Structure of Diaminopimelate epimerase:
Amino acid sequence: MEFTKGHGTGNDFVILPDPDGALELAPGLVAAICDRRRGIGGDGVLRVVRAAKHPDGAAMAGEAEWFMDYWNSDGSFAEMCGNGARVFVRYLLETGLATPAGGTLPVATRTGVVHARVDGEAIAVEVRRPRSYGASAAALGGLTLPGTAVDVGNPHLVCPLPAGLELTALDLTRAPGFDPAFFPAGVNVEFTAPGEPVDGVDAHVLMRVYERGSAETLSCGTGACAVAAVALHEAARDTGTVAVDVLGGRLTVTVTPDSCWLSGPAFLVATGTLTLP
Ligand SMILES: N[C@@H](CCC[C@H](N)C(=O)O)C(=O)O
């Protein structure tokens, strides 16, 4: 079958067009496709299926034609993928499968319909307003790093590093420990440090992430939204715009009273034929 490879700030995805929902995707197949040596390689798979043809999308078919069926690289599901949604929209536009109406394009996801705006190289998606729901901690390299749990449709734990500990010093080749009683479905863990002041934004944060189901990635869009919400809270603000620098570039997050816009570049880089095992 045909595939396209795309990325948003280095968070990379294998895109599988399956308009009628005919493809039998399974965890083992997704993991094989995402294998960086034996497969195509990616942090996840985005299956492009008509909302009406997917059991998780059918209820949204009146609002959005396309459903983003997102899978992590280990074959697990996630409720939402911010960068994935941005790359998904780039794919819909470049293949002519959809055109924005009134400047925005709706996409059905497991967290509901999200709306996207296109601005040249950048695609912005409006995701759920991040909601902090308590304090927990990550364990890494013998350290316990306190953090804030944040729900962006999927779960995050945002851990600002203590002074003197550099982001570059973290070994994220292994998963950070977390409290499974607090995060029974697992969690994406973001480590942050303050960035230098940037014009035009309310805060600037540097971030690395270890993603549930995908290990360390160069970027996580929903993670950036969680990080932005925590940074704004630390600045005694409820809303505002935050520049979040990830290993793969810069994401800009604007938290509004009732939602959150995630913006950054999104590219398609290759197409090809996948020989299914
Ligand atoms: N990279 C994504 C998040 C993907 C899902 C995540 N690994 C999870 O399991 O929740 C993003 O850009 O938001």
The longest strand covers residues 131-140.
